[in-house]
Each structure stands twice: as C-alpha cells, then as structure tokens.
Amino acid sequence: MLKQIKEDIEVALEKDPSSRGYLEVIICYPGVHALLAYRCAHWFWKKNFYFIGRFISFFARWFTGIEIHPAAQIGNRFFIDHGMGVVIGETSVVGDNVFLYHGVTLGGLSTKKGKRHPTIGNNVVLGAGAQVLGPVNIGDNTKIGSGSVVLQNVPEYSTVIGVPGRVVFSGVSSEDENDTGEETFPDPVARAIECMLERLPQMEKEIRLLKEELHKKSDTPPTQKPISLSSKPMKKVSSGHSS
Fold this sequence. Notes:
The protein contains 5 helices and 15 strands. It has one domain (2-171, 184-192): Hexapeptide repeat proteins (UDP N-Acetylglucosamine Acyltransferase, domain 1, 3 Solenoid), CATH 2.160.10.10. Helix 1 packs antiparallel against helix 3 (30-46) and helix 3 (30-46) packs antiparallel against helix 4 (50-64). The longest helix is centred in the C-terminal third of the chain and has 32 residues, at 188-219. The N and C termini lie far apart (143 Å). It has helices spanning 2-15, 22-28, 30-46, 50-64, 188-219; strands spanning 67-68, 73-74, 79-80, 87-88, 93-94, 99-100, 105-107, 119-120, 125-126, 131-133, 137-138, 143-144, 149-150, 158-161, 166-170. The chain is elongated, with a radius of gyration of 35 Å.
C-alpha cells in the first residue's frame, strides 16, 4: 500500500509541470487525495467491508469533489488533474498510465446490474468534460477530446472528438503533435469545410457547362410542322335565291 501511495505521488509530480515538490502534492492536490482514498476504500471493498468502502468514497467526494466508486478497478500510474467533477462508476475498469482532466465521467446508461460502465485501456488521455458512457471499450493510446461524448467502442491509437464522439484519427503513429511536442486535436468541422471548398471549382465548372449547353439549345429555332392542305374540294355556297 505504501509503495502504491508513493507511486501515485510521483506520477503527479511527473505529469503536472506546475508541481514543485512532494509536500505540495500531498497537501494541495485533490486528485491525489481522491486516488489515495480510493485505494483505501477499494481494499475494504475487496474484504467485503462494503459500508466502510462506501463511507470512505463518500467522504472523499465531499472533500475533493471527485467520486470514485470503491468497486471500480484502476491500474497503476493513474492521475487526475484538477479533478473537480470527475465521476468513475462501479463497474469501470481503468488501465495503466491513464490521465484524466476535470469533469470526466465514466458513467453508465442502464439501471440493470452487471457491466454497465466503460473499460479504459492503457496510456489513454481524457480531456476536460469528456463523457464516456455505457459498457464501451476505449483502446490503448487513445485521446478523447474535451467535451466529447463517447457511446461506442474506440480502437487503439485513436483520437475522438465531438458529440457524439467520432474517430478523427486512427493509426499507429499519431500526427496530432506539433513541432514542440504539444498535443493537438484536429477540427472535423474545418476538415469538412476544406473538402467542400476543394469540391467547389469542379461543381462550378459543371454548372457552367450545363448553362452553355442549355443556351445552345435555346438559340436553335424550333422546327415547325408544314401545314397540310386538305385534298377535299371546297363546297360552293349558294346564294339561297331561286329563279
């Protein structure tokens, strides 16, 4: 347990560039407080002391604003930055080296017992306000953009953005990093507009050709049918006076 606590503190020092020492992390980091409380509550839960586990979880929620169910399974090197509003449900499974920002929800869509919360792979980043709902699987090395709502399985090495969440990148080597190594996320709306702009010149050309063809047809005089004269002789009209 002490080894696990030491690792949780070291991960906070490693992943948060604003941290300045062990004492600051131990006293001032609600994400670390919630995680340490979860480790303790989870130990009691596995020993069938369910009430004690839930009470520790409740106290940690009141103290930190982060709710982690004691039955959830969380791996090593887990870190919650800022933390306020994070909710991790009962049947959630979180892999190793996962990074959560504030407002993340690993929630369920069903009131039935059983697996109803997400499974998060290793090396996953979930942006602020991301919602992962239902018993979905999030693959390893995936990034979930801020404010995204994920309702379906996500393959590994993917980037997900939007409501509902859509995979905007999937591959072994991500291109979503700039020259300084900072993480960036593509804009699917901007990409759609770019595709439309690329298509516009071709559409304009096609419309111009159609106009020219219609203009040529309108300039051609319509063909008229020749009037056929009847071969029947015309009757002579009498004056109506008899001699």
